[in-house]
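Input.
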Amino acid sequence: MQKKPSALQPLPPLTVMPPRKRAPQQLPNAGESSKKPKESLSAAANGKGKARAASASPALDVQHVAITDLTTLSQTVKHFSLHYRPPYPPISVAQENRFAWPITDEVLDGWLFDKLGLHILREIDLAVGNGSALHEFIFKYGCCACGDNYGSGRHIVDWILLVATSIANGSSAVYRNERACEYPIEMALQRLKLMFEVPVTFDDEVMGRQYTGRMDWALGTVEKVVLREGGDSKDISTGVGNRTLLAVIEEKGPDTHSVAEAQLLAYMGCLYRNREARGTREDSSAFGITTNGTAWTFYMLDQQGAFGGADNQRAHVPVRQSRQYELRSSHTELGEVLGMIIYILQRGAVLLTPHGLPVEGDDDGAIVVRK
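Output.
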């Protein structure tokens, strides 16, 4: 049974609240203004504006990636948009040419002679011949040292890289004694140095990542770099900078070839994408080597073979790879390794941008070595 609506009840009488007592206003002293200082007002306004801007558009998170965490080829290929040789043959002739090493063993000597002169071939023969210091060291090291552990071949790598560097930059005895050589050493190669444990930092603004790592070795052109703050002419730091890294070398252990290869390609990817982003080079190609001291493999990220890149996507860069050179199989392999190192150094020097002021010539950007 529904209830009947009750009659309207009269509203309760309004209650008037007494006025609030205000604290007595303190009058300013003579000569003072009752207004707040403009600085505090503007600071407060700026603070509120910053808070609103922060809440409206939060800062983008940058993903920090340690190159040591990239342990598989699939990871490295995805991070840097590389095109690696398909693992399952057969592949077409066009694909074979895309991944093949750009020079063969048969024409290497002729190429070195045309580009660098006869003295290069003579120095390589002297360095690897029977009875040479390098040949004897490798032989004795193989006979007397245990080479099954990671890092056991670092002394061999050091020696081979130093010999190749001395031949390429003209500091060897043969070149010093033949100053009348008609093939002078290029200025870029004269400043060539072998560097150890080179730190790398690369900010990938396209993908929102920052890569950090430390290369085992690097061959590059080194010069003094004065870093300046903005447009100010005041020097804030002086160090040793890499105008360019001509080659990156990564050590591999007995069972870590795939890991070393993945990390080497990641370092090369940092170089390539950094050069590409800066846009100061006509060719951003990068070179690298994996080795355990006795086995050597050479790599190249070749810009000339890059493809794709439509719809604001990165072009895929093919990975060129040489055969593996094994020093224990034949004494001629050591000469081939030295020749290939000098080959990639010469190729890398040709790709340099024209040299200007030191700070302007640092075309590898954030990759800097400091002392």
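The mean pLDDT is 75.
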